[in-house]
Design a protein that fits this description.
heterodimer; A: 6-stranded mixed beta sheet; 4-stranded antiparallel beta sheet; about 0% helix; about 55% strand; B: mainly beta; 7-stranded mixed beta sheet
Chain lengths: ~110, ~110
């Protein structure tokens, strides 16, 4: 069975700091990888996705993620965070066949103004 | 295009009762998946429907069931509610199934069981 782990449960940053959130998964087959964000009081939104090709993917709001197949990792990065990036971030993995998403436990990010 | 809609948004039920939640996918989307979100267990997959057929099921008891209609709208039902069923139930829709499928989530139904 798949599992997804996110390294940090809580992260506190100041504005303009860089952000990196770790995500590792366990599954030997072909996977699709996602990062979702849940802003306070809002629903889950897709930040970015990796299906194939260039392992460095860019998403919305200046976020990017790098897929390292040998490490089973898909880490999320943003060079300079803003107060509005305060949210919970979820890494998710999907087998290439089917639509079942397996989520990590989430990381709550608080950006101090 | 309208997003995924879920009704009702909030629900309070008593232990032992049953509940039905509804999800309308994005127009043209044929796949609907359901997830349960709780502080303790996080986001867990319940089941997925595609073209009215259940394609995948998570590790939940048989009290949790679902169905999909010909217009792709989906309902999930929980019978004999338990306190532990209190959660945010999320619906996600996708235009396809499998490789390169992206899922879009609705706002959820907040179920409280007392």
């Amino acid at each position: 069975a798949q599992s997804v782990s996110q390294h940090n449960h809580h992260v506190i940053l100041s504005e303009a700091a860089s952000l990196e959130l770790g995500c590792n998964y366990s599954y030997g087959g072909t996977v699709n990888l996602f990062w979702y964000v849940q802003y306070p009081g809002q629903h889950l939104q897709l930040l970015l996705k990796y299906f194939s090709g260039d392992p460095l993917v860019k998403g919305i709001k200046g976020f990017e993620a790098e897929f390292i197949k040998s490490k089973f990792s898909f880490n999320l990065r943003k060079p300079s965070v803003q107060w509005s990036d305060t949210a919970e971030y979820f890494c998710a993995v999907k087998e290439a066949a089917g639509n079942k998403l397996t989520f990590g436990g989430g990381t709550r990010v608080l950006v101090k103004p | 295009k309208a997003g995924v809609t879920q009704t009702p948004r909030y629900l309070i039920k008593t232990r032992g009762q049953q509940v039905t939640l509804s999800c309308s996918p994005i127009s043209g989307h044929r796949s609907v998946s359901w997830y349960q979100q709780t502080p303790g267990q996080g986001l867990q997959f319940l089941f997925e429907y595609f073209s009215e057929t259940q394609r995948n099921k998570g590790n939940f008891p048989g009290r949790f069931s679902g169905r999909q209609f010909s217009n792709s709208r989906s309902e999930m039902n929980v019978s004999t509610l338990e306190l532990g069923d209190s959660a945010l139930y999320l619906c996600a829709s996708s235009s396809t199934q499998g490789e390169s499928a992206e899922q879009y989530f609705g706002p959820g139904t907040r179920l409280t069981v007392t």
